[in-house]
Every structure is written in structure tokens, then in C-alpha cells.
Amino acid sequence: MTEPSSEPEEHGERGERGVRAGGAFVAGPRNALTDVAGLRVGHAQRTGDGWLTGCTVVLTPPGGAVAGVDVRGGGPGTRETDLLDPSNLVERVDAVLLTGGSAFGLDAATGVMGWLEEQGRGVRIGPHVVPIVPAAVLFDLGRGGDGRARPDAALGRAAAEAAGGSGPGAPVAEGNVGAGTGAKAGGIKGGVGTASAALPSGVTVAALAAVNAAGSPFDRETGALFGAPGSTPPPPAVHEEAMRRLAESVRETGRRGPAGGSSPLNTTLAVVATDATLTKAQARKLAGVAHDGLARAVRPAHLMVDGDTVFALATGERPLPSPVAGLEAASGFNELLAAGADVLTRAVVSAVLAAETVDTPGALIPAYRDLYGGE
Q: Is the per-residue pLDDT at 265 higher than 90?
């Protein structure tokens, strides 16, 4: 069944402070992408009867948001990313779609466009509007048991409706929702996570990630999360038992057949956003620097079996910050870029901590918090 959702699931510990050159910043009110005023997030997913997949839609304010993209993985699946090149015509996008289903999942963008068209959202061409919906896919085929169970236009529409029906600044559901429903990362359950930063200038920067990586979000030697370097590693005995259980889950997934649950194909998708005024070129730079945050939290990242893609959105509600005192030859844009990488790191950690174990005919994928005893 389809389960649109915009309510949060409280799991694990979420870092609410980040590090920047010259000091610390505090997370926004929700520590979520929706701390950027005007952005709304909606999820829709299907589970059971061979299904384990979903879609996440980030809806921009009326009039759209300036957007950029940076694709670093070797196996991407995308739609409308060429449009985001700064040399091309359209400046603003109406929504961004993150979806499971590998290349098949791009069909979900049709449903998002249909819903937006009904709202009169898009580039006006005579009597028509053409909604602009960049999209990217991750690989989750067969993890529910049926390789033909993947997002379609109806599921994309449900995610768009969930985003449109949420209130301003609404909390964002995390874990096994939306595009993170069938995600895994380094053998453990991946999912959706989000985080935000309120900069001293008053600018907000935030990220949402659907974590589905070939690399690992945790150190195989200690069990510590790469994206939370200040945390205490699990006791050695707990880590040893966790690795034993993880190895058994990998073997069990392999025994369940070739449906796709044990496939090495992956991809982490993310949206990084700000309320600052940016050009398309600056938005693309923000997306590119945010990849540094992914590489801190997942090791290795950007492999040939990943299609790692980061979109950037700028709503333009605030001027770009002026230079920050104490930073040599740096501008407020540098601080914004650094925060973009930081919030993406924290969004990955939140996704891993929020994820829940799944046990389907196609795969057994344990959650980090189940392996290591987190709440």
C-alpha cells in the first residue's frame, strides 16, 4: 500500500551542533530541510508483497527556487540535470524528486509533474505550464523480493501530494520512508535523514539525504560512525557481535536468491538548501562542496557502483552573507559552503540512526541501532 508521510520518527541521537571555521553553529528549529522557509517534504512508499521502495519530493515555494546539481558517482540515473547548467535557460525548479527503482523509478517524476501542473506550477508557455522537476534514482530493485516492484507515476504523485499537504516548517520523517525505504549502506539499513544549520549571519543551510551507499557509514574496525567523530565507539565485545550478525545477514540475503537484495549497486542522493540568494553557478558550487560532507560520512564514496548526486536549492529570501570576521580572505559564501558539507554529513548520520531493520523475501538488512543496541 502507499503510505505518504510527513511526520517525524524519533530514533537515535541527532547532532544539533556543527563545526565551522571560527566557532560553532546551532541547528534550526526542526534540524531539518524544512528549516529553510518555504520548502516542504513529502514521502510515499510501498512495503510488503514484494515491495520495498519509495519516493521523496522536495517542493519549492511558489515561483520556484534557483537550483544546481553535482553528480559524482559512476552510475547515476537522473532527469533534467542538464537544465541546471548555469549556461542554460531555466533558472528555477518547482520540485526535486529522489526515488528508488533504479532507472525505472524516473517514471515517478511524471506523477510529480502532473500534480504540479494541476496547481498551475511551472514555466508558462502560452496557455500551458511545464513543471520543472529534476530527479535522481537509487538502486533498491528486488530488496522487497520482487524486482518489478518499483516507483511509478502514482507513487511520485503521492509524494508530491504529501509535500503539498504539509504545513510550513513541518517536521520531516526519517529512516525507512520515501526514497530511503529500500536503501542500504555498507550492508546495514540506510534511509532518509535530515539536518540544518542556523548561521550567525541569519542564513539557514539544511540537507536531506537518502543514504544507499556501497561504502560504509561506520568504521569496520571499531563500529563508530564516520560522520560522528566525537562519539564514543561501541565496546569491543558489542562490535565483534555486531560484525558477526552483519556477516550472517549478508549470507542470508544471498541465500534468498537473485532477486537483487545482494546487488552491489547503490547511490546516495541528497538535497542541500539555503534561504540565501544564490546564482545558478553558486548553487552548483554548493552542491559540489556538499559532496565533501558525504565523503566524510561514507567511506569510500563516489564509486563506480554509486550514482551519488547532490542537488542544491536557494530560495533567495536573504542576501548572501557579508564577510565573516576572523576568516582569512573568506566571504560569507565560504561559510555557507562549509555549512552545506557539514549538514550533509549530519543528515547521513541521522539517516543511519533512524533506519530500522528490514526482513523481506529479498533481503535481511539489519539496522545500525539494532546491531549496536541503540534506542
A: no
